[in-house]
Amino acid sequence: MNIDTIKDGYVIDHITAGNAIKIYQMLSLDKLDCQVALITNAKSKKTIIKDIIKIGSLIDINLDKIAFINPEATVNIVKNEKIIEKKKLEIPKHLINVCKCNNPRCITSTERNLDQIFNLVDHKNKIYRCYYCESTLEKEQFIF
Ligand SMILES: [Zn+2]
Question: Which of 16, 52, 67, 137 could form a disulfide with 89 if both were Cys (CB 3.0 to 4.6 A apart)?
């Protein structure tokens, strides 16, 4: 793939350097059939270095996962080699099946069919609590 041009797909830009691999894992991009380019430590004017992910297909992507890891990122939707939409991300108020509760006594650890739900309780410090047991979400508790 020419990493500069994508016919149809996404360019996830302005990712804080080092976060692209987390987004890559969280979105399970390794399981896709289409082409994916992961560019780390790219130079940009806004930030000194940044990461970029290019996905060569308009697959369903969970923007909340990207926003949870990197709310500063922008998601560009590309059709026929043109950016048709730039999506600004916001810190999600609810995380549904993005992260798993670590509390062994939480109902979600025995009732496996329940959705994993976390609610944002502190916007400034990005603190989430489990909807069921109120456990605080640790930063790296991802569902991959
Ligand atoms: Zn819980």
Answer: 67
